Amino acid sequence: MLKTQQTEVSEKVIIGVDPGTQVMGYGVISVKGQQISLVQYGVIHLSKYSTHELKLKKIFERLTQLIEDYLPDEMAIEDPFYGKNAQSMLKLGRAQGVAMAAALARNIPIVEYSPKKVKQSVTGSGNASKEQVAYMLEKILKMELSREFMDATDGIAIAICHQYHANSPASAAGSGSKKAKKGGWGAFVSENPERIK
């Protein structure tokens, strides 16, 4: 008589955050084995707050609430892209920092991804439009997404990008730092020892 071993498929919850100073998008996904399902997505409207400090406070409060509600195992967040306006970059960096602080306060590991990396992971093109990203997410998740929440679809895309990269052979062989960028020279060396002289 043969005993069948049943291995329980563990579930991982990832929150993806698209930082912003007017609108911040987020997406929470659940991953069981290779199955990705959408748990929640939405936006935090910040334009109604009169000062930057109030916006930062709201970001921290809402993300803390989302973390308490969905208990994510990991946070994936988009790197601020470099714009022409230094003041805008500073404010965006602060928004990202406050979002990260909400995760760090709960000991949740954080990984950052560039906007180009996120688009490339989801659509195959680093120059894809928001509409193309949303279209591909609908195919991946096998469901329709609300077009009024384009910033939220960016949050979902960041979470899915993280899932793809966190489970790639490069990341498995990479560094132990959860904050580290995925891939890079360490991963290349681990995957291609015969190419090093």
UniProtKB/TrEMBL annotation:
Its main location: cytoplasm. The active site is at D18, E78, D151. Its EC number is 3.1.21.10. It comes from the Bacteria. Keywords: Cytoplasm, DNA damage, DNA recombination, DNA repair, DNA-binding, Endonuclease, Hydrolase, Magnesium, Metal-binding, Nuclease. Binds 2 Mg(2+) ion per subunit. The keyword Amino-acid biosynthesis does not apply. It is an enzyme of class 3 (hydrolase). Mg(2+) 2 binds at E78. Residues 171-197 are annotated as: Disordered. InterPro entries: RNaseH-like_sf, RNaseH_sf, X-over_junc_endoDNase_Mg_BS, X-over_junc_endoDNase_RuvC. It catalyses: Endonucleolytic cleavage at a junction such as a reciprocal single-stranded crossover between two homologous DNA duplexes (Holliday junction). Its cofactor is Mg(2+). The keyword Nucleus does not apply. It is found in: Cytoplasm. Mg(2+) 1 binds at D18, D151. Pfam families: RuvC. Belongs to the RuvC family. Homodimer which binds Holliday junction (HJ) DNA. The HJ becomes 2-fold symmetrical on binding to RuvC with unstacked arms; it has a different conformation from HJ DNA in complex with RuvA. In the full resolvosome a probable DNA-RuvA(4)-RuvB(12)-RuvC(2) complex forms which resolves the HJ. The RuvA-RuvB-RuvC complex processes Holliday junction (HJ) DNA during genetic recombination and DNA repair. Endonuclease that resolves HJ intermediates. Cleaves cruciform DNA by making single-stranded nicks across the HJ at symmetrical positions within the homologous arms, yielding a 5'-phosphate and a 3'-hydroxyl group; requires a central core of homology in the junction. The consensus cleavage sequence is 5'-(A/T)TT(C/G)-3'. Cleavage occurs on the 3'-side of the TT dinucleotide at the point of strand exchange. This is Crossover junction endodeoxyribonuclease RuvC. It comes from Dyadobacter endophyticus.
